[in-house]
Design the sequence.
């Protein structure tokens, strides 16, 4: 099996996802979109697409010309029933592809915040824990695509997770976070840590209990396992 990971910034890597893929014996190709002339991968032979976060906005095509082609690649993957997971900016890209608005959030949010599962009558949807805590690091937010089911929400930013059909899930939060990954984000995006109501200082971010990381990483494990199991299109 083969996973393709789209990475938008040097400091926003796959974190725990990469370790999990290696443990499962799934080959991974990381496309570093922030590098000049980095070619987009061939999606047709992939079993899984993971679209990571980034500091840019989905409308920044002029500054990041590769965004247009990236959106086309994500759309092609979804149309071909390839399991697709979008994280933060990645989820915003998916929402945009499905015609939903992506705007500046009322509150820029950086920190460990509670999230709750949304009840749904759809039997085939992924089910989140009733309550959990994960890392927020975003300035924009997505509206819910018409085809999507809301799976998780928070008081700070309502739409935290959605699902489209059986094979597409978008997360506004960073469940792939490891201590190393978080330190890298702090080191490279320290200017984001302003004195705003929903922005926690670096010391507070790094002193989060180990259970926050463990629960978030277990969630990523469960989500990717679900996507691979539910997808009707198997590639080997």
Sequence:
């Amino acid at each position: 099996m083969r996973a393709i990971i789209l990475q938008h910034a040097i400091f926003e890597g796959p974190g725990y996802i990469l370790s999990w893929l290696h443990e499962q014996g799934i080959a991974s190709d990381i496309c570093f979109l922030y590098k000049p002339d980095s070619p987009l991968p061939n999606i047709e032979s992939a079993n899984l697409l993971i679209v990571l976060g980034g500091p840019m906005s989905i409308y920044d095509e002029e500054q990041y010309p590769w965004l247009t082609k990236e959106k086309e690649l994500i759309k092609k993957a979804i149309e071909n029933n390839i399991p697709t997971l979008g994280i933060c900016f990645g989820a915003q890209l998916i929402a945009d592809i499905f015609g939903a608005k992506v705007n500046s959030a009322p509150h820029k949010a950086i920190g460990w915040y509670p999230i709750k599962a949304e009840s749904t009558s759809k039997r085939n949807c992924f089910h989140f824990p009733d309550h959990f805590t994960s890392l927020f690091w975003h300035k924009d937010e997505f509206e819910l695509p018409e085809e999507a089911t809301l799976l998780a929400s928070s008081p700070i930013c309502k739409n935290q997770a959605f699902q489209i059909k059986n094979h597409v899930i978008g997360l506004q939060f960073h469940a792939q976070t490891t201590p190393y990954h978080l330190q890298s984000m702090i080191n490279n995006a320290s200017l984001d840590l302003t004195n705003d109501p929903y922005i926690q200082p670096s010391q507070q971010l790094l002193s989060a209990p180990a259970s926050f990381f463990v629960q978030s990483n277990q969630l990523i494990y469960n989500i990717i396992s679900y996507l691979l199991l539910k997808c009707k299109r198997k590639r080997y």
Observations:
- The two ends are 5 Å apart (CA to CA).
- The longest strand covers residues 102-117.
